[in-house]
Known about the structure:
Elements: H1 2-22, H2 36-57, H3 68-146, H4 148-157, H5 161-177, H6 179-182, H7 185-231, H8 236-252, H9 258-261
Amino acid sequence: ALAITRLKEKIPEFSQNLAEIGQQKDGQDGGIVGGLAQRVERSEFYQEQFEKLTSHLGIQEIGGFVSYQKAVIGRLGGLHELIKLIGKRFARLQQTLNLLTSQQQMSESIETTSTTAKMLQLADFIIWQFFVPYYGSHTLESNVEKDPWLKHFFEELSADYKAYIWHGMLLVGTLGAHRHWIFPKKARQWVLQLAKDSAKAMGRRSIAIGRNTIAGVRTAAGWARTAAEVSLSKTRRLARYRYALIRYRLRTGRSHPAQLRGKRNRDQLEP
């Protein structure tokens, strides 16, 4: 917190100093037109134009003498490098200042969010602890007074039922106001996960019971069909055949046994 406070105090001073550096005086002409960054860019532009023009002039070096291009670079090269270095450092200072400003804004936003959260928490506590017991008890009492059956029911329970309503709503409001401490986040998550698991287990159990019921009904229907076909068979052999076939279908789910799906012996009699 101390570092953030110090940062808030120093950032305006840093910004003013950087602006003065960017608009430093230039003799009698006043401030630099466009600022220091534009002056550095113009210097780099002039240097590039000089290098391009001297390369197109085709000036050859005379023995024992230094060429014009090398003489200019030797005389002004250091100044050009210094100008580039000033431009890089100035850009770095601007980036650092922008970063510090962003950090300051972020810290202020976090502080504002924290203050808002505390105010909302305080408002939630006041609503549950004071408004819910007061207005809740009065609302419930008025509803009981309007309904004769409810009034008779509460009077049978206790003649002083209004006090019980008030204490009950006060208990509800106190639990609601202190729910974050009574029921911490991990406990609420555990209860929610337990409820989800219980719902899933009940759903799976219900599906399993439904499937078993459907399978039982199908089995009962199959056996009923078997009984009907066996009872309606004309011969004992046909009844035994139908009984064995339906039993095989119910147990395996196949339509016919493997030996019946193959080639049948010509001497075998029809059932």
